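Following up on my earlier thread - several people asked me to post the actual chain instead of describing it. Fair enough. Here it is, all 417 residues.
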Amino acid sequence: MRLRMFFVLLSLFLSTADGLDNGLALTPPMGWMTWQRFRCITDCVTYPTECISETLIKTMADLMVSEGYLAVGYEYIIVDDCWMAKERDKNGRLQPDPDRFPSGIRALADYIHSIGLKFGIYEDYGTKTCAGYPGIIGHLETDAQTFADWQVDYIKLDGCYNNRSTMVDGYVKFGKLLNETNRPIVYSCSWPAYEEPLGIKSDYEKLVETCNLWRNWDDIEDTWTNVTNILKWFSSNQDRIANYSGPGHWNDPDMLLIGNYALSDEQSRSQMAIWSIMAAPLIMSNDLRTVKSEHKEILLNRDAIAINQDVMGIMGKLVYSVKNIDVWTKPITPIIDGETSLAVGFISNRIDGYPHLVEVALNLLNLNGGNGYEVQNIFENEYTNVINSTHLFVRVKPSGTVFLKLIPRAFERVLKV
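Reply from S.P.:
Thanks for posting it. Predicted structure:
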C-alpha cells in the first residue's frame, strides 16, 4: 500500500503539472444546473414557475443559500440552454431572451454574486445550440469577452451543429480566448460526449490541457437504468481515463438526479456514493422547492462530499464484483503511517428483495494494514457489520449502497486499546 501511495502521488503530480493552468476547479465543481429538471421550458404562461428565466434562477439561488447547499460546497448556479434570444444584437453580441431575462445577464450575475454564489452559463461550439439558439462559431472572440464582461464564473460549452473534424480545435481556441480575458472562468467541455459514443477515443491529454472538466458520455436521464448504463461505460473505460482526472481537470458523468422523480431513496444514495468515489462534479439538477427531506439529507451529507472533494483528487474505480454487487474504491486522506485511507462503495445490481450479504477479502481492496481499520458508515446503513482482520462484511439492499470510509489504525492507538 505504501508503494502504491507513492505512485498515486507521482501520477497526481504529473497530471496536474501539465494541465490547464487557470488555478480553478482544484476539487470537483459543485453546484446546480437547469437542464435535467427544467430542460428547455420557455413557455412562461403555461409553466410560470418552471420556465427558464431570471425568476427561476434567482429562486433556486436563494434556496441554495437558505437551505444549506452553499454551506456544504454547492457554489455554482448554471443556466443551461435556452436562455438566449433567437438572434444576436446589432453588434453581433449574444443577448438573453428579453421577456424571460428582462434585467439582463450581467444584472443576474451580480445578484448571484451578491448572495455568495458563482454564476455559470451555457453555449455551444456550433452554428447553433442543441435547442436552436445562436452558437459561437464565427463569434468566438466576441463571446469570450461578452462572458467576461458579464462576470461569468463557469461556462459549459456543448457540441451540437458543428464539423466534427474541426470541433476539437474550436474548443481549444475558445479556451485560450477565455484565458485571455483574464476573468477566472471554469471551462466545461463536451467534445468527448460527441466522440466516445461513436467509438472515437478522445484525446484526454488535450482535454487536460484545455478544460477544467469534460462530459465523457451521453446525457443522464431521470431513470436508474440510465445511471447504471453510465456507470458501465465508466467502469469499462476507467483504466483509460482515470489518470487524466485530478485537481483542475475532471471526468464528468453528468448531473445528480437526486431529488427528482425516478430514483428511490436507495438509488439516490447509490448515485451520491459513486459520484463521490469517482471524484465527479456534483452538479444537481432538480427543483429545490420540492426536494424531499430524505433526498436533501443525501445531497447535504458532509462525509460523502468530503470524499468527493478529497484533496488528492483521485478518481475511484470499480475493483471487484461479487454476487451482482459492484465494489468501487477511492484512495483518500488521511494518510496514517504511510497508508492511505479508502472510500469503499458497494452498489447492488440485484432485484431479489432482501439486503444481500457480501464478504470481501481486504487484500482484494489492496488493504494490508496489520493494525486494522476504523470504519465509518457514510449513510449509517443499519446492515453494516464490523470488520475483522481479513474480511469486510456488509449487507446491501437491492439497487442500494453501503458507503464506507476505512481509516488505517495507527500503531500507537492500537497499543492503547
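Confidence is low (pLDDT under 50) at residues 1-19, 413-417. That should answer part of your original question.
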